[in-house]
Please model this.
Amino acid sequence: MKNVGIVYDHIYAEHKTNLMYSHPERADRVIHAISRLREEGMYGENRRSNFFEIQPRLAALEEIHLAHSESLITEIQEKTVRAAKFHQNLTTDPDTVLSGESYTAALYAAGGNFSAIDAIFDGIINSAFILCRPPGHHANVSASRGFCVFNNIILATQYLMREKRIKKVAIIDWDAHAGNGSEDIVYSGVPNVPEEAELLFFSIHQDPRTLYPGTCFPEDIGQGKQKGKIVNITLPPRSGDDCVQLALDHLILPMLREFKPEYILFSAGFDGHHRDHLTNLGYTSQGYGKIIDKVMPVAEEFAQGRMSLTLEGGYNLEAQSNSIVNVVSKLSGAGLIIEEDQKTNDQCLEYTENKLIPYLKKLLGPYWKNI
Ligand SMILES: [Zn+2]
Model:
């Protein structure tokens, strides 16, 4: 059995997005998930001995500054002060809502990623799930958008590269929406890290022609030192788990093996689930666990098993919680807890296998021997 850390604090539920109107990215998401983790013996007093509760720390302002502009940080700070004063929600874009505790919650969301990384490097745990809010992968240097405030996964990448001297980090963003904020920040290389540090970034998302944010296409492969190390896997609606498995087998795993990551981060959004109303990818709750099945051997071979998963989207409470318990169970070395019927769409499979993957190989092949 492996030791798995769950990073959680009630502050993640204090970012209140529905004071005025109902909002899909709501506090119930983490409240529901943590209670499911408790029921499964993965969190709380009755947790099994290989599960660890990790207390998140507050990120320092200078740490947030490594990925975000002064003006964005000030905007979030000021708007949360006003939101607290009037006990109402304020917005940074039409989708992204702040309440009186949002700034603190966002600092703890980023800091929770640092706490997880510290616990892994201290040898307490092998891997971690950070059940944090607000999410991060749509936020870029100067904009909090798409429900996201600070970009937790990029801040984690910088923390690994600066504080832990990790030279090779891989990110797998499996949220149904493209990790456009993350890609914006790192498109020419990760800022404010040692020169020799390298990032390989995968975003597996629903075809942006059919879903927010409408960017991050296969042709966007990075530039400068990052060229060939940004991979946008744009799956058609109704792809299901099997298309992700094809992308893993033919693209992600061979590239990871060639890259040899020393740490693997996941932007873990669960809105690709077939019960999620915001997207149409048609994944099951075991689909995410099956990604861990395939990536874990690579993490063990090159990264001493070091992986952390950061919550992004996921708007059907039950689907998200089922998916999370499956993923955490897999991280611990145990089996799936919940399985649903698989829905495979033959046209999507055929498109992914014969069109999308060969096209991505053609674009990225010049940079990789293994594909
Ligand atoms: Zn999403």
